[in-house]
Amino acid sequence: MLLENPEVRKNKLPNTEFLNVSIKSEKSSTNDWLIDDNRIGQQKTWLIQGHQENHELSYNFSKIFQLYTIDNVVDTLRFLRKHQNLVDILLKAHREIRKYFPSEKLRLKLSVDPESPQWEKLLLSIYSSPEYVDEALNKLDEFDQKWWIKASLGVAINLYINLEFE
Fold first, then answer.
1. Is the pTM of this model over 0.85?
2. Residue 22 buriedness (CB in 10 A; 0-12 / 13-18 / 19+)
3. How many CB atoms lie within 10 A of CB 135?
4. 71 burial via Cβ count (<10 Å: 0-12, 13-18, 19+)
5. Between helices 55-67 and 73-82, what is the axis angle to 10°?
């Protein structure tokens, strides 16, 4: 599932609280989000069952959805709710990544080990052009050395940052 936020280009937050947005089971859109996944109606129950979203977390989720393209949205949100320490890291990572990759597409995807479904990891992919492989690898190495190695202490088991080429 892919969530695209048309507000990204305008660099402003949606005018609704993220988890208060109505999600329907078929392709639909709200003022802020375009959601396309037939399973979402069945899977959204975790969003509302016994969970009162605090405003700061809701704001941070909205910010993450502005900064990154998100695959498998419901599963990713469930994972971030479970590992809330990643939310601040993802916000900081965006600022740091943009120092080295100012315009490249950034995508978050929850990866599940097929042999051990309880083992999940969030993948943050930086998409670069295949024409600039060496330059991108050098930038990633510098990003790792100057920020990610230190910042990843305690979270690297749940978050992996890599390069992809398209």
1. no
2. exposed
3. 11
4. middle
5. 130
Provide CB contacts within 8 A for 98, sequence distance 6+: none
Which of 105, 102, 154, 155 lies closest to 125 in space, CA to CA? 105
Q: Which residue has the tokens 């492989």?
A: 133
According to DSSP, the β-strands at 69-71 and 116-128 are unpaired
pLDDT tens digits, residue range 43-56?
Answer: 444 443 434 557 88
DSSP classification of residue 132: G
Compute the residue count for the chain: 166
Q: What is the pLDDT of residues 91-108, one digit of tens each?
A: 999 999 999 999 999 999
Please count the other Cβ atoms lying within 10 Å of the Cβ belonging to residue 92.
Answer: 12
